[in-house]
Amino acid sequence: MAGAGGGGNDVQWCFSQVKGAIDDDVAEADIISTVEFNHSGELLATGDKGGRVVIFQQDTENKSQPQCRSEYNVYSTFQSHEPEFDYLKSLEIEEKINKIRWLPQKNAAQFLLSTNDKTIKLWKISERDKRPEGYNLKEEDGRCRDSTTITTLRVPVFRPMDLMVEASPRRVFANAHTYHINSISVNSDNETYLSADDLRINLWHLEITDRSFNIVDIKPANMEELTEVITAAEFHPHQCNTFVYSSSKGTIRMCDMRASALCDKHSKLFEEPEDPSNRSFFSEIISSISDVKFSHSGRYMMTRDYLSVKIWDLNMENRPVETYQVHEYLRSKLCSLYENDCIFDKFECCWNGNDSVVMTGSYNNFFRMLDRTQRRDVTLEASRESSKPRQVLKPRRVCAGGKRKKDEISVDSLDFNKKILHTAWHPQENIIAVATTNNLYIFQEKVN
Amino acid sequence: PNCSGEWSRPATETQDPNSNPVKTEEAKLKAKYPNLGQKPGGSDFLMKRLQKGQKYFDSGDYNMAKAKMKNKQLPAATGPEKSIVTGDHIPTPQDLPQRKSSLVTSKLVG
């Protein structure tokens, strides 16, 4: 299945690499807050709570031989955001990187957008592997040459040097968000992108930093009437006029930017009617959508709420076409999950390359692979214990109640501090990146 | 054709409604916190979410909090009376923390 990006047909996942410190004492700055492959899958970026970005590059030396596994090695790292202080509100602005989104590659350099709660930055990552040598007026170390000692002229030439990867901030898009940015999404036109906070969505041009257009505004005139917030937003992968945004009430609105300048009226509203007999104190909280992702095909979109993953057909608004339970056993634990705030955890989800399998994280460093075509699901674990080279991951089972079978783990033994919120799937191959609190695991399909 | 690809059906759909685990959880919560708001998903939660971020009295308070985090020993305020209004004492330039170092590399590197 190499290159197909499918996860079906009994794909077995093997440990490939793990990045990060082994010790349990996790510094806040090391908490991974976002993971994203670029469009070719050659680069893998992570952002953390300390405002740093680390980019890994796939080692392509052995790619021609399918038996060899490719490894991801550090390519570049830089401080993207620093902590700031909002003097007007006396509020600290965290440097935590909320999202990273890559731009499609246009030339030799790579570009990505990274954002914290308030400011989006466009970073250029470029390689330098030559340097000019043989200047007439200065030495190699930069000191000036005494012009009286110069008797001949030479032409400086480019000589190879050790590869240097430089990251430089090319644009800073600031001061456009009153509330906290939760999403950024690059348009398929490669010229614009959107940024969404709790109440508003702005449209930017990648070249212009002093202006942005507000395209969605759900702030009520009277804040007492606030009933829902925007939780995620994304542009359609092919239709440059279409985007969706999800809400804390479990709805998704699709908007068409051709309809009007301010897209407060949606063109489609996706909402699954709730069975009133199921309504409880927790209903709205667990229906809040934490992530929305279009399929690569552009025909479907996936949403993640606290307990489930739903696949929606863009042509059908009244209910999802598929619903998968991520960790149904937590339904009987909602009271304690509310008390320890875990019920507010925001899990992300992702598609594989050909949209046949979706993946999302859970607790106890478990993550779930949901195969849409085979109607099969598996729970795997990212742990140091299963980190021997090429070790095949064993499926995990959680026992909801009653007699616990051998190899099962009971719900009460789950570690709710070990959450996998961020996962990413290589766009073409069966390579996945799974972030635990402070470690990045890379798993690959078992190749015989 | 069956468009609904539902499997792993939620327990609530197939079980006797009297044994609804979510209702049991709700009852537990209400027993612990009888004064919990009438509108659970409403304004209180959302306002808290919009307010996210540590609030300080002012920028001086912020800088002193940062200094404390670095475990710096602040000189004791002179005089027996410490009528604290905002923080322990007025910081001098030496007390203010240096700009946070950007040179601490992520542990994901190497």
Automatic annotation (TrEMBL), chain A:
InterPro entries: PP2A_PR55, PP2A_PR55_CS, WD40/YVTN_repeat-like_dom_sf, WD40_repeat_dom_sf, WD40_rpt
Gene Ontology cellular component terms for the protein in this record: protein phosphatase type 2A complex
PANTHER family in alphabetical order: PROTEIN PHOSPHATASE PP2A REGULATORY SUBUNIT B
Listed Gene3D superfamilies: YVTN repeat-like/Quinoprotein amine dehydrogenase
Lineage top rank: taxon: Eukaryota
SUPFAM superfamilies: WD40 repeat-like
Keywords: Repeat, WD repeat
Protein name per UniProt: Serine/threonine-protein phosphatase 2A 55 kDa regulatory subunit B
Quaternary context: PP2A consists of a common heterodimeric core enzyme, composed of a 36 kDa catalytic subunit (subunit C) and a 65 kDa constant regulatory subunit (PR65 or subunit A), that associates with a variety of regulatory subunits.
Statement: the UniProt record of this protein carries the keyword Oxidoreductase: no
GO BP terms: blood vessel lumenization
Family: Belongs to the phosphatase 2A regulatory subunit B family.
GO molecular function: protein phosphatase regulator activity
Source organism: Astyanax mexicanus
Automatic annotation (TrEMBL), chain B:
Membrane-spanning residues: none
Keywords linked to the UniProt accession: Cell cycle, Cell division, Cytoplasm, Mitosis, Phosphoprotein, Protein phosphatase inhibitor
One Pfam family cited in the UniProt record for this chain: Endosulfine
Residue segments, region Disordered: 1-43, 70-110
Compositionally skewed regions (Polar residues) per UniProt: 1-22, 99-110
General function of this protein: Protein phosphatase inhibitor that specifically inhibits protein phosphatase 2A (PP2A) during mitosis.
PANTHER family (alphabetical): ALPHA-ENDOSULFINE, ENDOSULFINE
Similarity section: Belongs to the endosulfine family.
Protein name: Alpha-endosulfine
Organism: Astyanax mexicanus
Native organism taxonomy: Eukaryota, Metazoa, Chordata, Craniata, Vertebrata
